[in-house]
TrEMBL record:
<feature type="binding site">
    <location>
        <begin position="237"/>
        <end position="240"/>
    </location>
    <ligand>
        <name>substrate</name>
    </ligand>
</feature>
<protein>
    <recommendedName>
        <fullName>Isoaspartyl peptidase</fullName>
    </recommendedName>
</protein>
<dbReference type="Pfam" id="PF01112">
    <property type="entry name" value="Asparaginase_2"/>
</dbReference>
<dbReference type="InterPro" id="IPR000246">
    <property type="entry name" value="Peptidase_T2"/>
</dbReference>
<dbReference type="GO" id="GO:0008233">
    <property type="term" value="F:peptidase activity"/>
</dbReference>
<dbReference type="GO" id="GO:0006508">
    <property type="term" value="P:proteolysis"/>
</dbReference>
<feature type="active site" description="Nucleophile">
    <location>
        <position position="209"/>
    </location>
</feature>
<keyword id="KW-0645">Protease</keyword>
<dbReference type="InterPro" id="IPR029055">
    <property type="entry name" value="Ntn_hydrolases_N"/>
</dbReference>
<feature type="binding site">
    <location>
        <begin position="260"/>
        <end position="263"/>
    </location>
    <ligand>
        <name>substrate</name>
    </ligand>
</feature>
<keyword id="KW-0068">Autocatalytic cleavage</keyword>
<feature type="signal peptide">
    <location>
        <begin position="1"/>
        <end position="21"/>
    </location>
</feature>
<keyword id="KW-0732">Signal</keyword>
<feature type="site" description="Cleavage; by autolysis">
    <location>
        <begin position="208"/>
        <end position="209"/>
    </location>
</feature>
<dbReference type="GO" id="GO:0016811">
    <property type="term" value="F:hydrolase activity, acting on carbon-nitrogen (but not peptide) bonds, in linear amides"/>
</dbReference>
<keyword id="KW-0378">Hydrolase</keyword>
Length: 341
């Protein structure tokens, strides 16, 4: 009888642990880009720097949530950290266009109201995610581009910088290498697999588009994405990051989503909205929906990944590349950061 009681207690303990694991609630998820990220190519110092940067970003957003602020504040604070870190292709570490310029894109969306804001091709805003939020909250529009978006950001009181602020030697060298290898085709920044599309090759001169999804204490979701785009991009090219439904989408009834990868494929597949629609209309989980969306990108020839967080705190970090800089933080403040597949 004593043995039976001990066995019963053991079974109940195991069940309790399993239930606890299943009920882990995430309040934030972030990404720092997907690509051919292999441990053999990473120095211990570089790996530590990425882990530290992702951890710092998560903690910045978590501080906002813990203080009872809105998920929008958490997303903005988190992405500020990543935009200010030259390891990532956003803000300070943005890649160069064919003409040697830095043209930045960003978007943000409120899951409670479905309000959204975006900027594309900005060249003087220190933190493009804040410009996207300003478009959402201080204008009647959803997207502004180029010089007009820069002027709007300045009028909104955001920090404006000289374009030289974005310059980093690593990104400049990446542009020179891209031009040297292929002077007529744009070079993608997220992976290294080859593509027959337009005869282009998909090189890994950088990866690092950044994104964040947050769930606040009131149960509201928000999502945001920020990027410098493609190395060697030409003629005013804009990718998926500032396009609501393609690179960013958020709805309290489903999930918040931020994408990273070969933008053209994300636009053509409306990836972020697809995840939400699969959850809303088919009743799929956030992880099931995310996998289907990324599989569609892969079958068409594109690569990359996405992060998603649903209203219950379930998270998905799905990608079809060798790695994706990513991390989460739970409601109790536990940080989890990963890099490789």
């Amino acid at each position: 009888m004593r043995a039976l009681k001990l066995f019963t207690v053991l079974v109940l303990c195991v069940l309790a642990v399993n239930v606890s694991a299943q009920q882990k609630k995430y309040v934030m998820v972030i990404h720092g880009g997907a690509g051919t990220i292999l441990k053999k190519n990473m120095t211990s110092e570089m790996e530590a720097a990425y882990i530290a940067a992702l951890t710092k970003a998560l903690q910045a957003g978590y501080a906002e949530i813990k203080a009872g602020k809105a998920s929008l504040d958490a997303v903005e604070a988190t992405i500020h950290v990543l935009e200010n870190d030259p390891h990532f292709n956003a803000g300070k570490g943005a890649v160069f266009t064919h003409n040697g310029r830095n043209e930045l894109d960003a978007s943000i969306m409120d899951g409670k109201t479905l309000m959204a804001g975006a900027v594309a091709g900005v060249t003087t805003v220190k933190n493009p995610i804040s410009a996207a939020r300003a478009v959402m909250e201080k204008s009647e529009h959803v997207m502004m581009v180029g010089a007009g978006a820069d002027q709007f950001a300045k009028d909104a009181g955001l920090e404006i910088v000289d374009p030289k602020y974005y310059w980093t030697k690593e990104r400049w060298d990446g542009l020179q290498q891209a031009i040297k290898e292929d002077s007529t085709k744009a070079v993608l920044d997220h992976g290294s697999k080859k593509s027959e599309l337009l005869g282009s090759k998909n090189h890994d001169y950088k990866f690092g588009t950044v994104g964040c999804v947050a769930l606040d204490k009131a149960g509201n979701l928000a999502a945001g994405t920020s990027t410098g785009g493609m190395t060697n991009k030409k003629y005013g090219r804009v990718g998926d990051s500032p396009i609501i439904g393609a690179g960013t989408y958020c709805n309290n009834e489903t999930a918040g989503i931020s994408c990273t990868g070969w933008g053209e494929f994300y636009i053509r597949n409306v990836v972020a909205k697809t995840v939400s629609d699969l959850m809303e209309y088919k009743g799929l989980s956030v992880n099931e929906a995310s996998k289907i969306a990324i599989d569609k990108v892969g079958k068409m020839g594109g690569d990359g990944g996405l992060i998603a967080l649903d209203k219950k705190g379930n998270v998905s970090m799905t990608f079809n590349t060798e790695g994706m800089y990513r991390g989460t933080i739970t409601a109790d403040g536990k940080v989890e950061v990963s890099i490789y597949k």
